[in-house]
Task: structure prediction
Amino acid sequence: MIKAVLFDFRGVIINNDESLHEQLIAQILIEENLCPQPGEFQKICLGRSDRACLTDLLTRRGRVVSETYLLQLVKRKSQAYQQQLEKLELPLYPGLEDLIFQLSSRSLKLAIVSEAIRSEVELVLNSANMAECFTVIVAGDDITASKPKPDSYILAVEVLNQQCPGFNLQPSGV
Result:
């Protein structure tokens, strides 16, 4: 019996925001006096956290950054993303809101598992009036291991089990 549904965020909840991320990562590189390379974002950053993306991009250019400085870069990028997103109509998938409300009305617990920063996820969910439908959000700022490692999904299952005693959810396929 299905008790919970775990959703990724980018590419599942929010659609077609890759070009905005690419633009903002390029801006961070330029601010760091580095040149973005054609195709680099797709090769290094797609499907990965901003933290992992920026770490790899900077390392490839011989930069060594402290954890504190890396977190500042991620925060700067996230703030710029949120400012840009507030100016746009949310690029949500057609039918998504109906699906979310149907699942939550059936007493299924819904969770977001994403590499995105929590404030980005919350902004979109609040703007789409879907925040109350999600019991758990595991975001990029909650984990250090990047997908495809299953750490974020395992954490989401653990949190769901804590919040819903008796659920006894077991991760599978990991």
